[in-house]
Amino acid sequence: MAPLVPAKAGTQRPHAPRLLFWIPAFAGMSGVWVFAVALLLALNLPIHAQQLSARSAAEAMDIVMWNREPVGGPFALTDHTGRARTEADFKGKLLLVYFGFTWCPDICPTDLQNIGLALDRLGSSAEAVQPLFVTLDPARDTAEHLKDYVPMFHPRLIGLTGDDAAIKRVADAYKVYYAKVPNPRGDDYTIDHSAFIYLMSADGRYLGFFPPGTDADRIAASIKPYLK
Ligand code: NI
After folding, report:
1. Residue ranges, the chain, pLDDT below 50
2. CB neighbours of 37 closer than 8 A, spacing ≥ 6?
3. 39 CB contacts (<8 Å, ≥6 apart)?
4. Which of 16, 101, 190, 210 is most buried, with most CB under 10 Å away?
5. What are 95-121's pLDDT values in tens digits?
């Protein structure tokens, strides 16, 4: 069972086929997915978290999972080589879009690694897929810093950063939840964030998402049908 949720154009409400899809998905992914959902909901709770996104974790998850509102949209960011980038640069490619931050200790590196491995598994057909990593921590994740980070996961992974407003615009367009959480000493912070891998069509439509922790084989198998 592939975890990718197919997004149907014009669907505004949950409907039976998608719901049915999720029941085996929950069963098939054992504790990992259930834990991820619980974590996402819990992320909404910290009192000291400064929510930066327009949506709470629960709202963001609801929209992404059930396709209640459009997901994705235009952006104007800077890549890890310092070059200005917009969505127009990637037209004609399937996009795997992931939001996170380089200081993330666990979930971000795991998912980015799985994206890289999935591309390797697709072989030469992966040329039609462009993986993007958009930082939610632009203050620390400068282009120079991303330049050291993204090649660890895949040579074709593109890291994207920008000013706070540009990051918020793209995060809100993708219905990403993120919040700044200071550590108790107040001299440092972490970023709580939803961690979905978005699959976007070659013409920019939202096709679905992979939940956190989806392994490379599932990602590759779910992308394959879209590669013609
Ligand atoms: Ni993370």
Report:
1. 1-3, 7-27
2. 61
3. none
4. 210
5. 999 999 999 988 999 999 999 999 999
Query: In this structure, what token pair is assigned to residue 210?
Result: 């992979």
CA of 25 to the centre of ligand 1 (A): 22
**197 Cα: distance to centroid of ligand 1 (angstroms):** 12
> Which residues are close to ligand 1, an ion, with C-beta < 5 A?
100, 104, 107-108
**Cα separation, 192 vs 76, whole angstroms:** 23
Q: What is the CA(177)–ligand 1 centre distance, in A?
A: 11
Residue whose pair of structure tokens reads 């108790």 in the numeric block: 184
At a CB cut-off of 8 Å and minimum separation 6, what does 183 contact?
189, 190
CA atoms lying within 13 Å on the CB side of residue 63: 20
Which domains, ranges and CATH numbers included, belong to the chain?
16-226 (3.40.30.10)
